[in-house]
Amino acid sequence: MAAAGPNPYAQQTVLSPAAALHEVGDPFVWSPKPVEVVAGSTGELTLHLEIPETCEIYRDRLSVRVLDAPGLEAGEAVIPDATHTKTFDEHEYGTLRDNAQIKVPFTAVGDLTGVQVVKLELTHQGCRGGLCYPEVVQQREALVRIVPTTHD
Fold first, then answer.
1. Contacts of 147 (CB under 8 A, 6+ apart)
2. What's the per-residue H, E or C state across the chain?
3. pLDDT at 14
4. Mean pLDDT over each residue of the chain, to the nearest integer
């Protein structure tokens, strides 16, 4: 009987989900777009979420929360409906597989004008094939320029 060779898997390290995310990187990219609005009127902040071709985001694990918005009253974020369904453990989950546009409506209130920094908390969880990434919570800033009203 021939002796068995060394086990090639004996030295492998199994990574936790957080460590795996650190190793591979988060494939999902948020890009807030600057916007301009006249004082006293309403506008819409657009957040572009890039979802790579081989990935998907769980719709119910996607959220946007406004942390600070000087001179603005922000409404609830409008997130697109799921475009696909993924089944796991006999449960169905709605997912987004294409890039998404999340809209945050707002009203410019008071006399504050100029460029305002809106602080946002963005949360998402997605997967690629059989690999599910842990939930990611990150903060981003978006710029809103509030211009004075003109009186003719």
1. 36, 37, 38, 39, 113
2. CCCCCCCCCCCCCCCCHHHHHHHHCCCCEEEEECEEEECCCEEEEEEEEECCCCEEEEHHHCEEEEEECCCEEECCCECCCCCEEEEECCEEEEEECCCEEEEEEEEECCCCCEEEEEEEEEEECEEECCEECCCEEEEEEEEEEEECCCCC
3. 38
4. 85
